[in-house]
Amino acid sequence: MAEFKKGDKVRWSSHGGHADGRVVDVKTSDFTLAGRRFRASEDEPKYVVESESGEGRAAHNGAALTRT
What we know:
This protein is mostly beta strands. It is built from no helices and 7 strands. It has one domain. Helix content is 0%, strand content 53%. It has a 5-stranded antiparallel sheet, with no helix packed on it. Strands 3-4 form a two-stranded antiparallel ribbon. It is globular, with a radius of gyration of 11 Å.
């Protein structure tokens, strides 16, 4: 699994095809984002990404992201 850090430019699948943005946080413990609860750990972190289009933030597994 690829590891990402804050500031990395990434791409991920989105409702309309794909989205581009940046990693803004790396979560290694359970957290809530936009009213949804996410599970994360040191072994399976979640990456909080912000889209370039300004449509907000989302959390993804590393396998869902591609470095650009």
